[in-house]
Design a protein that fits this description.
The chain is mainly α. Among the domains are: 93 residues, no CATH class; 79 residues, no CATH class; 133 residues. The protein contains 26 helices and four strands. The strands form two sheets. A two-stranded antiparallel ribbon has the order 1-2. The longest helix is centred in the last third of the chain and has 42 residues. The C terminus is likely disordered. Pathway: Protein modification; protein ubiquitination. Belongs to the NPH3 family. It holds the Pfam family NPH3.
């Protein structure tokens, strides 16, 4: 009975030879790969009983044949060569079979790795996926009306059908497959889609990882597995932006916070989110806090780090060595649109977390001050958030209220927000005075503009400065610098014209003195009146003996313009 096994298995032959002197009836095989079922298949092969080699048993047969030493050295066409031939000629040519073999290898490690079964299947999967993607790309090529060949991006891409198949592999093998695909050049979008699909299937138990009533973690084995899944997926994320949806990144970040993943994992997610924060929504930013009961409802610290990443990324993009960029007359810098969107997002986020009684003033202000000053063109959003915070924290000292209201530029409030702030009893008195002052300037500006076409009154210089400063504050530092240079040039021209007029007045004054010395008759008075009328500074005859407010305003504005020119020079 032992003869067929002894003739084909080198291991069994050695065991029998060691006990040749004794009559043995039992041989013990420790740590047999695949267990009793796989040994039964090996025994059938030795006794000539036919059975089928399939993708579901080829990995076990390769491993058991290596364990039992069923090689060509002991018998021709032995089990090892048969299994290897099936693996190479059949399995490695089919992606679905390779995935199934990888599943079978999960319980055969590390022997399956030593026999290179895993690596061969992974290489085959990566090559097949890459080939399918190339074929799909060729199928989407078409000729345009002008006869040029281009890619039809609206056509459905059928080269990613393998995504669903890979979701059944264990996380360590899945990581190796994704790494091989990246090396083969599979598109980042396809890698991202596979990661999203895998995460959705593996992290289905995340809602049970936290017990809100008792604040104690449950199902520790599941927690450890899902922590490993999150950290692995984060390490596999493509470096390209938009390869995965930002909502998915926020979902991973929530899971990472909940599962207490490594700091490197969370920081990587925060950096990726910060680089594309302008496409995020308010719901994305509302990350629940999973700490002790006395903490805030939402994870404010994580959001603050994301904003810091966004600001640093924005600064690095704007940091250019060429000084000529400041001469650009473009209305916006490249990241200005993103800044506007993020500023609105942050203001809405502040308004959402402001009612939290546990939210400290320092954290609220830290988030509000993260963005640069030119990010907000209108301060209605930050005013609304601060008003909600003051309403929820009525015991705030006056000093803290003043500190908080310094975040608001009352000159950038809309007419509706300004009217509300002027009657807001929660604001400090100093802030209300500022609101009333700017509202008065706005009203004065509107009145002056209504007469601008008929009469260029000197008040327009002041109103022009107000609107110009508001526009400059809405620009980035580069464009703000260019705008200030243009304003400086215009002020210099205006100053030059005023100096020329002053020289003409001085000359006429000398002539008048000379005439007064020569004549004291009524004829001199008539000549004096005519000359004064012809030298009016505004080009209109003024009423005798009148000192109008417009003259006083003009003299004041002239001094301001001279000081402005001196400072800008």
């Amino acid at each position: 009975m032992q003869f067929p096994l002894v003739s084909r298995s080198g291991r069994i032959r050695k065991l029998v030879a060691e006990h040749r002197d004794s009559d043995i009836s039992r041989v013990e095989l420790l740590n047999l790969p695949g267990g009793a079922e796989t040994f039964e298949l090996a025994a059938k092969f030795c006794y000539g009983i036919n059975f089928e080699i399939t993708s579901s048993n080829v990995a076990q047969l390769c491993c058991v044949s290596d364990y039992l030493e069923m090689t060509e050295e002991f018998s021709k066409d032995n089990l090892g060569s048969r299994a290897e031939e099936y693996l190479e000629s059949i399995v490695c040519k089919n992606l679905e079979m390779c995935v199934e073999v990888l599943q079978q290898c999960e319980n055969l490690l590390p022997l399956a790795d030593e026999l290179k079964i895993v690596s061969r299947c992974i290489d085959a999967i990566a090559s097949k996926a890459c080939a399918e993607q190339i074929a799909s790309s060729f199928s989407r090529l078409e000729y345009s009306s002008s006869g040029r060949l281009h890619m039809n991006r609206q056509a459905k891409c059928d080269g990613d059908w393998w995504i669903e198949d890979l979701s059944v592999i264990r996380i360590d093998l899945y990581q190796r497959v994704m790494t091989a695909m990246k090396c083969r050049g599979v598109r980042p979008e396809s890698i991202g889609a596979s990661l999203v699909n895998y995460a959705q299937k593996e992290l289905t138990k995340k809602s049970s990882l936290w017990n809100p009533s008792g604040h104690t973690k449950i199902d520790l084995l599941s927690t450890d597995h899902e922590r490993l899944v999150v950290e692995t997926i984060v390490s596999l994320l493509p470096v390209e932006k938009l390869a995965v949806p930002i909502t998915f990144l926020f979902g991973l970040l929530r899971s990472a916070v909940m599962l207490d993943c490594s700091i490197a994992c969370r920081l990587d997610l925060e950096r990726r989110i910060g680089s594309q924060l302008d496409i995020a929504t308010l719901d994305d930013l509302l990350i629940p806090s999973f700490r002790h009961a006395g903490d805030t409802l939402f994870d404010v610290d994580t959001v603050q780090r994301i904003l810091v990443n966004f600001s640093q990324q924005d600064d690095s993009e704007d940091d250019m060595d060429d000084a000529s960029v400041f001469e650009s007359d473009s209305p916006h810098s490249p990241s200005q649109g993103a800044l506007f969107k993020v500023s609105k997002l942050v203001d809405n986020y502040l308004a959402e977390i402001a009612p939290d009684a546990n939210l400290k003033l320092a954290k609220f202000m830290a988030i509000a001050e993260t963005l640069p000053t030119h990010a907000r063109t209108i301060h209605d959003g930050i005013y609304r958030a601060i008003d909600i915070y003051l309403k929820a924290h009525q015991g705030l000292p006056d000093a803290d209220k003043k500190k908080l209201c310094k975040l608001i530029d009352f000159q950038k409030l809309s007419q509706e927000a300004g009217a509300h702030a002027a009657q807001n009893e929660r604001l400090p008195l100093q802030s209300i005075v500022q609101v009333l002052y700017f509202e008065q300037l706005r009203l004065r500006n509107a009145l002056c503009c209504s007469y601008a076409d008929d009469d260029r009154k000197p008040v327009n210089h002041q109103s022009w400065r107000i609107s110009s400063s508001a526009l400059s504050a809405a620009m980035s530092p580069k464009d703000n610098y260019a705008s200030l240079r243009r304003e400086n040039r215009e002020l210099k021209l205006e100053l030059a014209r005023m100096r020329m007029r002053l020289n003409d007045l001085e000359k006429e004054h000398v002539c008048m003195k000379r005439d007064m010395a020569k004549s004291s008759s009524r004829k001199f008075m008539s000549s004096f009146t005519k000359k004064i009328g012809g030298l009016s500074l505004f080009g209109h005859s003024s009423s005798r003996g009148s000192s109008s407010p417009s003259r006083q305003s003009y003299r004041t504005d002239s001094k301001v313009i001279e000081r402005t020119c001196a400072s800008t020079d």
